[in-house]
MtN3 and saliva related transmembrane protein (Spiroplasma cantharicola), 92 residues
Amino acid sequence: MQIYEIMGWIGTILTAVYLIPQVIKVIKTKNTKDISYYSIIILIIASLIWIIYGLLTPIPQPQVYITNIFQAIFSTIILVVKIICLKESKKE
């Protein structure tokens, strides 16, 4: 394995897990008021585009699509919790 491949996988791992603390905090506290819908939606769309790019390039790039699969999943979790919290706050 070449050094650039090792660096790519390290970047993949770090980028894939960087949203985990935010997801945990959002689930525990149910506080999403300071998180922008637009930023979450943009991140989800960007992640989906990167997944497609990583899969469709002539030489598939797992570092690209694996990272973005995790980002899309974690961003979607945050978005769902935000929507649930909004619905609960409207009931009160």
